[in-house]
Write a structure and sequence with these properties.
2 domains, Rossmann fold, globular, 271 residues, alpha/beta, 14% strand, seven-stranded parallel beta sheet, 42% helix
C-alpha cells in the first residue's frame, strides 16, 4: 500500500464494534495493520467480534463499555493507554434508530414516542460527543489523532418518518465541524475531526423498510433508487476505504468535512 494511505500500527478505538457497520470497518482496519480496540456494550457480540478479528491475525482487544457512560469510557481509555500507550484514531460508530422513534406511513409526528426520541437522540448524538471528549483528550495531550463520526443523508434534507434519527445526525454533522475547529485552534494541526454520511445501505435495522418479504423493493426503496444516480444501494464495505483515507496522512489537511458516500443521492435533485 502507498505509505501515504497507511494506518499500519495506529491504535484505533471503534465504538459499536459488535454491530454490522462497526464490524465491517474493524475488519478493514485489522487487514490494514491497525491495532484495534473493539468497544461495545453487548458482551456476547463483542466476544464474537474480537474472536473474528483475531482470526484475521489482528492485534485486537475488546472492552465492554457504554458510549453514554463517561466513567465507563474513562476506564476504557486507561486500559488502552496501559496496553498501547496512545490513541491515534477514534471511530464513533455506535448509534442506530428505534421503532418508537420511526413513524409508520400512517402515523404523524404526534404519534411519536417521546421516550424513544430521547433514546435515539442520546445514543447517536451524546454517544458521539462523550467518546470524543474522553478519547479526544488523549489526542489533545499527544497533539495528534483522528476522529471520524457517522452522519447521514437525513442530515442533508428531510427524510420522512425518522425525526429523532434525523435531528441527531444533523447534530453530529454540526458537532464534527465544531470539534474540528476547536481541536485545530487549541491543539494544533495534528488533530483532525471528520465524518462520513452514508447513503442507503440495506442492513438489519432498515431491511423491513426497504425490502418486501418477497425480496422486491418497497415503495420507499423505489423513491431512494430514483434519487440515486448510480441506481443501486451501497455495499457496507464501500465505506471502509473512505474512513481509512480520512484517518491517514493522505488527508492531513482535511478536517471538519462530512463526506457523503451515497452514489450521488445528495447531489441529485431528482430531475
Amino acid at each position: 500500500m502507498n505509505e501515504m494511505f497507511s494506518i499500519e500500527g495506529k491504535v484505533a478505538v471503534i465504538t459499536g464494534a459488535g454491530g454490522v457497520l462497526g464490524g465491517s470497518i474493524a475488519k478493514s482496519f485489522v487487514k490494514a495493520g491497525a491495532k484495534v480496540v473493539a468497544l461495545d456494550i453487548r458482551q456476547d457480540q463483542l466476544d464474537s467480534r474480537v474472536e473474528e478479528l483475531k482470526g484475521l491475525g489482528g492485534d485486537v482487544i475488546g472492552i465492554v463499555g457504554s458510549v453514554l457512560d463517561i466513567e465507563s469510557l474513562e476506564n476504557a481509555s486507561k486500559q488502552i493507554i496501559a496496553k498501547w500507550g496512545r490513541i491515534d484514531i477514534l471511530l464513533n460508530i455506535a448509534g442506530g434508530n428505534m421503532p418508537g422513534a420511526t413513524l409508520t406511513p400512517e402515523q404523524t409526528f404526534f404519534d411519536m414516542k417521546i421516550s424513544d426520541w430521547e433514546k435515539v437522540t442520546q445514543l447517536n448524538l451524546n454517544g458521539t460527543v462523550y467518546p470524543s471528549q474522553v478519547f479526544g483528550k488523549v489526542m489533545a495531550e499527544q497533539k495528534t489523532g483522528s476522529i471520524i463520526n457517522i452522519s447521514s443523508m437525513a442530515a442533508y434534507s428531510a427524510i420522512t418518518r425518522v425525526p429523532g434519527y434525523s435531528v441527531a445526525k444533523t447534530g453530529i454533522s454540526n458537532f464534527t465541524q465544531w470539534l474540528a475547529t476547536e481541536m485545530a485552534l487549541k491543539f494544533g494541526d495534528g488533530i483532525r475531526v471528520n465524518a462520513i454520511a452514508p447513503g442507503f445501505f440495506i442492513g438489519d435495522q432498515n431491511r423491513a423498510v426497504l425490502i418486501n418479504p418477497d425480496g422486491s423493493l418497497t415503495e420507499r426503496s423505489v423513491k431512494v433508487i430514483a434519487k440515486t444516480p448510480m441506481k443501486r444501494f451501497g455495499d457496507i464495505n464501500e465505506l471502509n476505504g473512505a474512513v481509512q483515507f480520512l484517518c491517514s496522512e493522505a488527508a492531513s489537511f482535511i478536517t471538519g468535512v462530512v463526506l457523503p458516500i451515497d452514489g450521488g443521492f445528495s447531489a441529485f435533485s431528482g430531475v
